[in-house]
Design goal:
This protein is an alpha/beta fold. The chain contains 18 helices and 17 strands. The structure holds nicotinamide-adenine-dinucleotide.
């Protein structure tokens, strides 16, 4: 059954997008990203000659942004066909989706999807008979192992872009439920230590500012989780003059946050102090009813973790007497006692829903890792065990070297004497 919303979309043989008329705007946006992704450009130039993905069909489920469009054209330049959907109901850039459809790429994505349409789009991509799957959050691969399991035998391997997806897939692998090998792209140093820290740090603030236009300076900014994303966000919020409070459950990042100069406390204690709250944990129910009950009038609450379960929106709805939309991605919940709490982007990742996601320069490395992981799976996937595999150090160092070169930086190399010193245990005082 076609629901009302989908009936209004532009549909073709291999696409469903919001409005094909947005394609020119999408083209300009993709041009901007491409010019800032030189590592991927080098890989694409090479791929056009060597065609390492020849004959592959890649089903992708990852935010449809201008950077993703550059990844898609790189994958097709390497000889594969893609079939793509977004990995979040609110993150698709409709102009980019329109451009992809106009250029002939198979794309099923639009901004503001129902849950049913979200899975409708994923299922269309699976029906393309993929030999490789590419995930951001593991929704596609879980579908290939569940409702669409008839397609699993045809898949050689998969990749996973984000922390939460890698957690899900490691759990599947440990349970013996994975039917093909998966490469944890997220865990590459050139991804996790850059995309999640600098990308999420900057773009989360971008999303909060676009949805609210509030002054960050002088605000008490509570961040749940001091992992990669949370620490990146804390660094940027501090740089803009916020007083940052961290909440954690792991003593190691908690200690690191203290030594980085932040206050650390329980969410129960931070709830009454914060002006702005952002969750970055990958965990459910981090902000719940009792926290909403003690928040200040005017508190702003948002999330930058992968799923919208970090803030318990049902609790907020139950505790409020009315809701009104202040502006796009910003809703005011009026509590029974008259206080207002502002929820951004319905608790979905605020940097992609309310802004544009990570800047192209950092996605250059993340997506170069994605592309190289697909090439490795096309070549070796059939001989890999059906568990989660890491990116090799060789790939990480190669990518970092290329990135440095494209940025115009040179670094020293060890001399023969220095290499010998390294392995000489007799050299001491
Ligand atoms: N918004 C984006 O564009 C974007 C980009 C990358 C990753 N992510 C997502 O962000 C989330 C975090 O990713 P990461 O790479 O920072 O993970 P990480 O493992 O590096 O950090 C998560 C931190 O949250 C802490 N934590 C867990 N439960 C908590 C709780 N109840 N209260 C406080 N702290 C808690 C953990 O101890 C850990 O230190 C994941 O869901 C990931 O998929 C989002």
């Amino acid at each position: 059954m076609v629901d009302d919303e989908r009936a209004n979309m532009d549909e073709g043989e291999n696409y469903t997008v919001a409005d094909l008329g947005l394609a020119d705007a999408g083209e300009r946006r993709v041009d901007w990203a491409r010019a800032r992704m030189p590592v991927l450009a080098r890989l694409k130039a090479e791929a056009e000659k060597t065609k390492p993905l020849d004959g592959m069909i890649v089903a992708g489920c990852l935010h449809v942004t201008k950077e993703t469009a550059v990844l898609i054209e790189t994958i097709e330049a390497a000889g594969a066909k893609v079939s793509w959907s977004g990995c979040n109901p609110l993150s698709t850039q409709d102009d980019v989706a329109a451009w992809l459809a106009r250029e002939g790429y198979s794309i099923y994505a639009w901004h503001g999807q129902s849950r049913e349409d979200f899975y409708y789009c994923i299922d269309r991509t699976i029906e393309a008979n993929p030999t490789l799957t590419l995930d951001d959050g593991a929704d596609l691969i879980v579908r290939v192992h569940g409702e669409k399991s008839d397609y699993a035998d045809g898949v050689i391997g998969g990749t996973e872009e984000t922390t939460t997806g890698v957690h899900r897939l490691r759990a599947m692998g440990a349970a013996g439920d994975l039917r093909y090998p998966v490469i944890a792209v997220n865990d590459a140093i050139t991804k996790w230590d850059f995309d999640n820290i600098y990308g999420t740090g900057q773009s989360t603030l971008d999303g909060i500012i676009r949805a609210t236009s509030v002054l960050i300076a002088g605000k008490t900014f509570v961040i749940a989780g001091y992992g990669h994303c949370g620490s990146g966000l804390a660094m940027r919020a501090k740089g803009m003059g916020a007083n940052v409070i961290i909440t954690e459950v792991d003593p190691l990042p908690a200690l690191r946050a203290i030594m980085d100069g932040f206050q650390v406390m329980k969410m129960d204690d931070a709830a009454s102090l914060g002006d702005i709250f952002c969750t970055a944990t990958g965990m459910a129910d981090v902000i719940v009813n009792r926290h909403f009950n003690s928040m200040k009038d005017g508190a702003i609450v948002c999330n930058t973790g992968h799923y919208d379960c970090e803030i318990n929106i049902e609790d907020l709805e139950a505790a409020s007497s009315s809701v009104r939309t202040i502006r796009t991605d910003n809703e005011e919940f009026t509590m029974a006692d008259g206080r207002s709490i502002f929820l951004l982007a319905r608790g979905r990742l605020v940097n992609l829903a309310a802004a544009e996601g990570h800047p192209s320069e950092v996605m250059d490395m993340s997506f170069a890792n994605q592309y190289l992981a697909l090439c490795r799976l096309a070549k070796e996937g059939k001989s890999l065990d059906p568990i989660v595999h890491d990116i090799t150090l060789e790939q990480d160092q190669g990518l970092a070297t290329t990135k440095l070169a494209t940025m115009g930086f040179e670094i020293d190399t060890l001399t023969a004497e220095q290499i010998a010193y390294h392995s000489d245990y007799t050299a001491g005082t």
